[in-house]
């Protein structure tokens, strides 16, 4: 097992390199970089003020931006070339792309993510500041979806082909087919002051008077704000696990050892939960880390934007819009690294649950 883990860890290096290289190349051709963002603010073309930190000193006029000739940047005609050069130096664009790429990789290998272009804060501090919100959403979504999916999947397997199985399959298929963000919009319209009821808050993770509430009131307030986002995420997340649980149980129920257990006179509950459960739940339990990461990093992206939850999803979206490349690439690097390790952990969970699985004897 040690050799397998070492091989998987070593394979993460070229995988990360490829992810970062492709993303870096794409960014080079994307219009509207951080220099253009500053120029847009100076020339009155910016839609919103994104210069709350990093580049704000130059935008405020610490460098003379007047005069000069044309520039390769859109909207920079007439700005002082020295000003443009200092902007490029500030954002690191005065060096060749290849040099910038390998410097970024060297810094990231040491977990040095630098500072945000437009916020006066280090990237790692910014990510840590937003992470609790995303962890809350991802953790609760995964736990609730599993608490629903596993009993429902077992029941569907036991009642395979019955009316219960048919109508619950219809609900599962609808939940799988409709994206979570559409559920979120529907819930907002129905229950968050849209066209019908105003029962739940529209944005944020807690109320303005949160610090003044008692412990019990804080817990209620917390879940009151999470009710609609979690509902939207769970409705679209539980379908896959439900069907996976059902199919796993059906496969195990049809095996010979189950027939033997029933022939010995064991109760149906003893057969299901004493014999079938461990084997059937192998693939479901092993997929828990991956399900959490999916809800943590990808599932909550649109939900955080819809409900204005200040987590990593909203941070990533705003960073892409603002071309805050240090935050964008740091998020990509950290999430990719975590995703690779989660894949390894899932394999190790397989071997822990079922010792018959031996990855040492298989090629990676």
TrEMBL record:
NCBIfam families: PRK15133.1 (NF011712). Its main location: membrane. The chain crosses the membrane at residues 9-30, 133-154, 166-192, 222-245, 280-307, 327-353. Pfam families: BPD_transp_1. It is found in: Cell inner membrane; Cell membrane. Residues 131-346 form the ABC transmembrane type-1 domain. It comes from the Bacteria. This is ABC transporter, permease protein. Keywords: Cell inner membrane, Cell membrane, Membrane, Transmembrane, Transmembrane helix, Transport. Gene3D superfamilies: MetI-like (1.10.3720.10). Belongs to the binding-protein-dependent transport system permease family. One of its GO terms (cellular component) is plasma membrane. One of its GO terms (biological process) is transmembrane transport. InterPro entries: MetI-like, MetI-like_sf. It is a multi-pass membrane protein.
């Amino acid at each position: 097992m040690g050799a397998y883990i070492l091989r998987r860890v070593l394979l993460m290096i070229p995988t990360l390199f490829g992810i970062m290289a492709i993303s870096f190349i794409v960014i080079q051709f994307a219009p509207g970089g951080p220099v253009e963002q500053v120029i847009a603010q100076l020339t009155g073309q910016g839609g919103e003020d994104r210069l709350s930190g990093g580049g704000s000193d130059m935008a405020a006029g610490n460098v003379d931006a007047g005069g000069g000739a044309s520039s390769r940047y859109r909207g920079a005609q007439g700005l002082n070339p020295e000003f443009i050069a200092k902007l490029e130096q500030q954002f690191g664009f005065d060096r060749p792309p290849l040099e910038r790429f390998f410097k970024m990789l060297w810094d990231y290998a040491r977990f040095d993510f630098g500072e945000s272009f437009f916020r006066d804060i280090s990237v790692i501090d910014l990510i840590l500041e937003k992470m609790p919100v995303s962890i809350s959403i991802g953790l609760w979504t995964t736990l609730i979806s599993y608490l629903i999916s596993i009993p429902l999947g077992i029941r569907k397997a036991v009642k395979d082909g019955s009316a219960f199985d048919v109508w619950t399959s219809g609900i599962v298929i609808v939940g799988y087919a409709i994206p979570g963000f559409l559920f979120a919009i529907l819930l907002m319209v129905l229950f968050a002051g849209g066209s019908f009821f105003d029962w739940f808050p529209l944005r944020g993770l807690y109320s303005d008077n949160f610090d003044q509430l008692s412990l019990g009131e804080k817990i209620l307030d917390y879940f009151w704000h999470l009710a609609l986002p979690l509902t939207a995420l769970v409705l679209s997340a539980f379908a896959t696990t439900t069907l996976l649980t059902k199919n796993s149980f059906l496969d195990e129920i049809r095996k010979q050892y189950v027939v033997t257990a029933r022939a010995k006179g064991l109760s149906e509950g003893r057969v299901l939960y004493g014999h079938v459960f461990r084997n059937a739940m192998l693939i479901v339990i092993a997929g828990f880390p991956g399900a959490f990461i999916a809800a943590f990093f990808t599932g909550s992206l649109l939900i955080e934007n819809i409900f204005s939850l200040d987590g990593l999803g909203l941070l990533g979206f705003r960073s892409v819009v603002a071309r805050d490349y240090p935050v964008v690439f740091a998020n990509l690097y950290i999430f990719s690294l975590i995703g690779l390790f989660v894949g390894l952990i899932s394999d190790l969970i397989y071997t822990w649950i079922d010792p018959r699985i031996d990855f040492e004897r298989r090629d990676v």
